[in-house]
Fold:
Amino acid sequence: MANIKIPTSFNIELEFETAKLFQRFLAWLFDCLIRLVYGIALVYTVRNLKLGETYSYVVYFFFGILPMMLYFLVFEILMNGQTPGKLVMNIKVRSMQGGKPSISQHLIRWLFRMLETPYIFWNGIIPIIAIVRSPYDQRLGDIVAGTIVVSTKTKASLSETIFRDMSAVDYQPHFPQILKLSDRDMNKIKTLMDQAIKANNAELAARVAYRVKDVLDIKTEMLPEEFLETVLNDYNYYTTR
Structure:
């Protein structure tokens, strides 16, 4: 386990605690269990349907082999860097810049997983050696993709601080540039905005808004507080989809 500090566009060091080796192993084991149960259920269902040999092979390929192969890739994309196993173990994949991994980063991790799969003993040694020797506990796929697996258990959850549920409203985002920022950046923005509102400090809100616009190269006529509120809503909209 190691701590990694990543500088952000707000000159704030974003600190992560890397996931322990046993956490990653147990998460992988849990995901394997899910796939095993799914596979057994699929075989049981296909046999009971008595589809015949040819149709059975087709069903096994499309509903068995493909889902098994794409399991990690699909879940980590849909669950913001987590699989069910990672969720249980409170770990997730992040980019080395501190934000969400891109689709290409997820794809690279998945492709290298084929070389590192622990199904074969000697291949299973590869990710273990890489994690142990890496200063940030990265497996080979993480190093190539520029990602890191971190612990999500912290004393103060940033996601809880900045989270807004945008799924219940027909929200239209304004600033896609907001995805250049990290959770830590957004948490700092919200903290300063709350301070400005609580103290009725229009100057502070204006300074924060100006800084955000400058960093993201945003041109808008919105008032500072309205702009910062929109920024927070936009960030939640984009990161939860």
Observations:
- The two ends are 30 Å apart (CA to CA).
- The longest helix spans residues 21-49.
- The first strand starts at residue 3 and ends at 7.
- The mean pLDDT is 83.
